[in-house]
Amino acid sequence: MAVKIGRNDPCWCGCGKKYKVCHEAFDAKIARFAAQGHRVPPRDIIKTPEQIAKIKESAKINIAVLDYIEEHIHAGMSTAEIDKIVYDMTTQMGGIPAPLNYEGYPYSVCTSVNEQVCHGFPSENVILKEGDIVNVDCSTILDGYFSDSSRMFCIGAVSPEKKRLVQITKECVELGLKEVKPWGFLGDMGQAVHDHAYNNGYTIVREIGGHGVGLEFHEEPWVGYHTKRGTDMLLVPGMIFTIEPMVNMGGVEIFIDEENDWEVYTADGKPSAQWEIMVLVTEDGAEVLSW
Q1: Cα distance between residue 189 and residue 278, in whole Å
Q2: pTM score, two decimals?
Q3: Sign of CA dihedral 287, 166, 184, 26
Q4: Among candidates 226, 221, 225, which has minimal Cα distance to 236?
Q5: Coil, strand or helix at 277
Q6: Nearest Cα to 107, choosing from 68, 145, 70, 139?
Q7: What is the pLDDT of residues 36-60, one digit of tens each?
Q8: In terms of Cα–Cα distance, which of 154, 139, 157, 145 is closest to 83?
Q9: Cα distance between residue 207 and residue 122, in whole Å
């Protein structure tokens, strides 16, 4: 429960202003939604301007690393080489790769190829070849602040079927982003993503989704894509979360590698694609912080 603040007390956001001229009306509006039965964000996931500025600095590293990979990824490259690039660039720029040693994950990045849905282990034995699609999921810590995004890469000439999957998945993210507005709902975004994927003959993984991010690697809210408009958490300015649907060419079923308990695959062996952006809810819409 949030501690009650007097109207003339300093605002909880740390701006130094009195609560009554800063977040009192904001909190009252959230309380009205809560009274109507809506799920509302806890105060600790609403970022202050100072926190947002520091999260943006972290995101600069994340974007720079993915930009470099985009320029240099090629057939014949091992996914272990990608891992080394991520580690070297991130640390040289003053950051820490967030995945490294996170809950036992042993690498600096996730590289998921073809039928791998997510959390693919980089390896000297996984050599990218013509026709592969690969998701590179990069996350950064800078001075204790987190950023997170991923991109799909087509290696050489890929089949029309794989190319379409990658494109439609990107469109899902773009359509979801258009639905991110203050005082809307997370379900508005979720349904837009869901409908575009399914209308194009694809499925979206249910068990794994996006998440809040910024002060921790994974925060509230959990972000799914099987939701309905007008449902799920209320969106308010200062919230930051990822939009990252994992779209399967075939069925929705997945399995996790029993040996490492990390790598996720499609059950039918058909390809999967994922794009991930990190989004800030603003006063008048949304701002993409990392992509």
Answers
A1: 14
A2: 0.95
A3: negative
A4: 221
A5: strand
A6: 139
A7: 999 999 999 999 999 999 999 999 9
A8: 139
A9: 23
